[in-house]
């Protein structure tokens, strides 16, 4: 099973600040890494697929990078509406797995 | 507009059975893989099962042998039959559309249906 380790677990950030969330895979998954945002009481929402591909309708302040085992989700300038938990997910092999999540709060 | 509407959740006793459904609309259902992902109260996301557009099935070890995923392309509906339920199966169960015909990223999610296993 491919284990995805996210860091940090929690981050409190001032609006307009840059946010960086990392996801490390326990083995090489190429670019089969995807990012989701989940706000309280809501379903997850796809933000980035295949490590760095943008999704239509997602604000351009969200971007992804990485390949192999190390991946990053960046929010270039945090807005209040970005308060949420962020998850990475790998589709390289079964069982499909998710990272433990990173909760982003607003200072 | 893609819509996924789950139903069938509820309270069930340990050892019991339940079937949850997901009615899909807004896309060609038979072209895409579909999955179930669950989230225990206050916890993270856990993949449960995937069915490809051609009917191939895949399961997490924690549910293999107890849960069965299926689809009815004529009704645009995804199912999850859950047997021998345990307390640790308590979660919100989300239906998710895969980005491709097999397993892939999840580009659309339903609102979820709560399954509670308790005596």
Key features of this structure:
heterodimer, A: about 110 residues, mainly beta, seven-stranded mixed sheet, four-stranded antiparallel sheet, 11 strands, about 0% helix, about 50% strand, globular, B: about 120 residues
Report on the structure:
The complex is a heterodimer of chains A (107) and B (119). Chain A has 107 residues and is mostly beta strands. Chain A contains no helices and eleven strands. Chain A has strands at 4-7, 10-13, 19-25, 33-38, 45-49, 53-54, 62-67, 70-75, 84-90, 97-98, 102-106. In chain A, strands 2, 4, 5, 6, 9, 10 and 11 form a seven-stranded mixed sheet that branches. In chain B, the strands form two sheets. In chain B, strands 2, 4, 5, 6, 9, 10 and 11 form a seven-stranded mixed sheet that branches. A four-stranded antiparallel sheet of chain B has the order 1-3-8-7, with no helix packed on it. In chain B, a hairpin with a 7-residue loop joins strand 9 and strand 10 (106-109). Chains A and B meet through strand 4, strand 5 and strand 10 of A and strand 5 and strand 10 of B.
Fraction of residues in helix of chain A: under 10%
Along the chain, the helix and strand elements of chain A come as: EEEEEEEEEEE
Q: On the 0-100 scale, what is the average pLDDT of chain A?
A: 97
The quaternary structure here is heterodimer
Low-confidence stretches of chain A: none
The coarse overall form of chain B would be: globular
Alpha-carbon distance between the termini of chain B? 40 Å
Main pleated sheet of chain A: 7 strands, mixed
What structural class do the secondary elements of chain B suggest? mainly beta
Q: List how many beta strands of chain A DSSP finds.
A: 11
According to DSSP, the number of beta strands of chain B is: 11
* Beta fraction of chain B: over 45%
Radius of gyration of chain B: 13 Å
What's the number of helices of chain A?
0
Q: Name the biggest interface.
A: A-B, 21 and 22 residues
State the share of residues found in helices of chain B, binned by percent. under 10%
> How large is the radius of gyration of chain A?
13 Å
What letter string, H or E per element, gives the SSE order of chain B?
Answer: EEEEEEEEEEE
Largest sheet of chain B: 7 strands, mixed
Globally, the shape of chain A reads globular
């Amino acid at each position: 099973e491919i284990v995805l380790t996210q860091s940090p677990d929690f981050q409190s950030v001032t609006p307009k600040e840059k946010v960086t969330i990392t996801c490390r895979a326990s083995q090489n998954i190429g670019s089969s890494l995807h990012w989701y945002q989940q706000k309280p009481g809501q379903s997850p929402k796809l933000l980035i697929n295949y490590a760095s591909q943008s999704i239509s309708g997602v604000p351009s302040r969200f971007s992804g990078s990485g390949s192999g085992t190390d991946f990053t989700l960046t929010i270039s300038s945090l807005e209040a509406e970005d308060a949420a938990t962020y998850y990475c997910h790998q589709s390289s092999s079964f069982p499909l797995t998710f990272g433990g999540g990173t909760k982003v709060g607003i200072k | 507009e893609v819509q996924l509407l789950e139903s069938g959740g509820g309270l069930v006793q340990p050892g019991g059975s339940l079937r949850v459904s997901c009615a899909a609309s807004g896309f060609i259902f038979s072209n895409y893989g579909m999955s179930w992902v669950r989230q225990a109260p206050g916890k993270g996301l856990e993949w449960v099962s995937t069915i490809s557009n051609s009917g191939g099935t895949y399961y997490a070890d924690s549910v293999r042998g107890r849960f069965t995923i299926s689809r009815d392309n004529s009704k645009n509906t995804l199912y999850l039959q859950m047997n021998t339920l345990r307390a640790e199966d308590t979660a919100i169960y989300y239906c998710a559309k895969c980005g491709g015909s097999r397993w892939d990223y999840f580009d659309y999610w339903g609102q979820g249906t709560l399954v509670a296993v308790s005596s």
